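Summary for the funding panel

The consortium committed to producing paired sequence-structure records for every protein in the target list. Below we show the first two records in order, beginning with the earlier of the two.
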Amino acid sequence: MERVDYESLIISDLLGYNNSKSLDITPWYQRRSVWQTPQKAYLINTLFERKPVPSIYIRQQIDLEHERSIKEVVDGQQRIRTIVSYRADEFAAKHPSHRSRVKYSELTPQQKTSFLSTSLSVGYLIGATDQDVIEIFGRINSVAKTLNPMEKLNAMHSGDFKQFCLNQAVSRLPFWRSSFIFSANDIARMQEVQFISDLAIALIEGLGDYSPTKIKKYYKDFDEYFPHEEDIDGRMESIFRMLVAIPAADFSDTIFKSAQIAFSLMVVLDARRAAPPPTDRIRQVIRDIDSAVTFAADGAERSDPRLLAGFTGGNLHRIKTRLIRDEVLKEALA
């Protein structure tokens, strides 16, 4: 192969190639897998929001029988199929300017123009033989690192609950970084998304064990539609509005930089949403509990036994310790 030339291709031109049958979406080496609706809707929403999507790779061939150029899709089959099917009104997707999902026909003329003029990155494989194409196809579709469970779950789902948790986690990035609740490496491995998923479930169902199985079930059950989105979004906004009003050092310099202890504070603040405690009161409780736990760990007499049981050790994600922290924090904020 000589080289790969990268160019921009707008969606209207891509659709034109498909309509003129000069685009081969299913060469012999391509997988025949088909995306489900949530995956399709997620891609279209990504395009609506002008977020980047992976490059499409194309090899140009000459059809000698019809004397025309054929663009053979080496990688990007499902993305192209999704764009074509959305233009054909086969499914609806979220649009930033609409409250509910919309089909292509329901977009305004300006929104249609914006969608059709969206640029896609295309890598043209120049001088590629069949052997080159097979090698490139294999390299593109191989996984370069071992994924953790949250990364695997994120890769498997593209629906409503996944989008909700991802968007919530990303929007709280300044708080995660300033409070040191999650390190840069934690964020790179999507630990904050896992945290938000767990928190959302707690706000819906009440306190329980941290459960990867339950999180996985939520991703699956609410792939198509997450009915609690508006409620949980408002409640999380209220929680984080209170948290960002607190100096970051109150977290980073205390036991409340522990994700599980911060989790418990968030759940209790949500329970107090009808009558939110003032910021100074929350700060005082954080400092008091941090000091009390430190003294208890040093063997102080007459310390509350709940402090060591609920705020220290390696089982802070279990329901037993979560219930202890919930009780202590509610009493302190009463």
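The next record, for a separate protein in the list, is shown here:
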Amino acid sequence: MQDVTDLPFMAVIANCGAPDYFVTEYFRVHSQSRLEKHILEAVTENRTGRPVFAQMIGEDIHHLVRSAKDLQEHPIAGVDLNMGCPSPTVYKKQCGGGLLRDPQKVDQVLGALREAVPGLFTVKMRIGFSDTENFETILDLVNKHQVDLLSLHGRTVKEMYRSEVHYDFIKRAAERISCPLLANGDITSAAKARQVLDYTGAAGVMVGRHAIRNPWIFQQIRDDQAGLPISEIPLYQVNRYIKELYEAVSKPHAPEQAQVNKMKKYLNFVGQGVDPEGKFLYEMRRAKSKTQLFDICDRHMPEDGDGTFAPEPYQGVIARPNCES
């Protein structure tokens, strides 16, 4: 997730129960691009003990190949191509989800990168741009170029995060492609992961936004798959996570208000599981200082409290105004 899955965030998540592997923020690839230092640190300075895939986004074949070769000079688990980003500033440049409009270009890009990456080459994509007309064609290109792993988000690019996830398309993809498939889109809990895996036949799940809300989700999924009970998370433990995350992502010498505002980006998701009325979210969004923010956390999630974190987002408690739940 761009501007989220940096090295400090990975370290905090790992303390709660790391995923099987991490994917970096995407490296923007164009004629003037170089590997961004702060993203590369998530590979070179990573102490989580988990493999890290380096994600690229772009459309210029020559420079994608150049960047892929540069990335292989570092201890990456593999190279990942983003063909799913729904940001208009991205897809208008024919990058990310914009590539799904042009299967011929996808064919060329996948072919060039497969040749340039002797190790693991993975792709993440959506089921289409504004419709699913090219869906099966692009799946066949994934097979043609022997992609090692496909992560499929079950919405079109234009649907962003607002529609229901079309898990039937993920099921169709699992039946059509020869490589392992990860199901992505509204994997809100271990129970939801089990439901999606049972229905789609996917090899696994990729969790994005809901790992911000619940960083224990990966361990909960593993426990559920092993037939173990899913542990409840006390609210005071969520409070500790928030404070650890605040310190981890804070930049030296940055203004406190900027740090607080950055933290609100994460808490917009965390707050979906704190209380069913959304009172924590309401108060948190109005905090002006670190002290105010932490006081709000302590009131809603006291150290001596016995409340538990909701395993699913509370109905009607929205992560961001006018945005996805």
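Regarding this second record: The first strand starts at residue 22 and ends at 28. Residues 321-325 have pLDDT under 50 and may be disordered.
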